[in-house]
Design goal:
By secondary structure, the protein is an alpha/beta fold. It contains ten helices and twelve strands. It has a six-stranded parallel sheet, sandwiched between helices. The chain has a six-stranded mixed sheet with strand order 7-6-8-9-10-12, sandwiched between helices. The N terminus is likely disordered.
Length: 322
Amino acid sequence: MKRRLFSMLVLVVILSMFTAQLAWAAAPPQQEQKKLTIALSLPDLAFPFFVFMEAQVKAEAEKLGNIEIITLDGQNQVPKQTADMEAVIVKKYDGVLISPITAEGMAPAVQQVVDAGIPVVTIDRTVVGVPTLAHVGADNVLGGEQQGQALLKLFPQGATIFELTGEPGSSPAIDRSKGLHNVIDKYPEIKVACQQTARFRRELALTVTESCLGATPQPDAVVAANDEMAFGAIEALKARNLAEKVVVIGYDALPEALVMVRDGQLYGTIEQFPGEQSRTALRVLVAYLRFGVKPSQHDIFIPPKLITKENLDEAERIGEIK
C-alpha cells in the first residue's frame, strides 16, 4: 500500500513537471526592450563635471539595455546648443536629456523639441517656462545657503569675502548666489567686498580674483559657485602668499577638490551628487518612453551636502582619490 502510494506521488510530480514545461514552451518569448535613441546635450565637455555626467548616463543606459546615447557638446554657446536641438527634431530622436547653458536663452529651442512631441528631461540646469517632462537636479539654493552657513560658523564675528558667480543667466549661478545671500544678507558683519562672474571657469577666476585683491588685499574668504573657480582663486591667493590665510569654499565636489579638502587647501565644497542626478534623469525619461509612466512630481531635487575634512567619505566620488 505504501509502495503504491509512493509510486502515485512520483507520477503526480512527473506530470506536474511535464505540464509546467509545456506551459513554458507555449508561452510567447519575452519581448526585447524597445530600442531608444536619446540625445544628451551638455553645456560644455571642457568641464570635468559634465564629462562625469556623460559617463554616468551611459553607464545607466547600459544597465537599462538597448539604449543609444548621442552626446551633444554645447561648447558653452547657446547658438550651438540651439542648433543641436534643431538636429534632434530633424533626426526624430526618442527623447532628450539636456543641461541648458542658460535658463532663458535655451527656452525657445527646448520648446520646439517639446512641440515636436519629443519628451525632454533637464538635468542640473533648468529652462524657464517650458513644459518639460521633468527636471532632476540639486537644490542649488540650499547648496548656496550651506556655503553661507559655513561662513557664519567660521566667522561668527564677521568677515570680508569675495563671491565668484557662475555663467550669467544659468540656473545654478542664479540659485547658488541666491542661497548664499539668503543667509549672509541677514548679517551685515559679513561684507561682500567683490562680487564678479568668472563664468564657472578656472582661468577667468584667477584673473577676477587678482583684480579683487587689487582693491581688497586680504579678504577672509572666497566663495565660489563651482570648484573650477575655487581652483583659480586658490592660484591667485598662492601668488600673494595668502593661500593659508584665506578660506575658500567651492561647489561640485570634484575629485581634485576632494584632494584639496583632504590636504587643507580648500575648506569645503558642496556635493550635489551629479552621478545620481544623471542616472535618475535617464530612468525617468526611459520609464515614460517605454511604459508611459510620468514622474509623480516635475522637480526632483537631490539635497546637496557641504563636504569638509570631517565628512570627506560622504562625497560621491571619494573612491576616485583613494
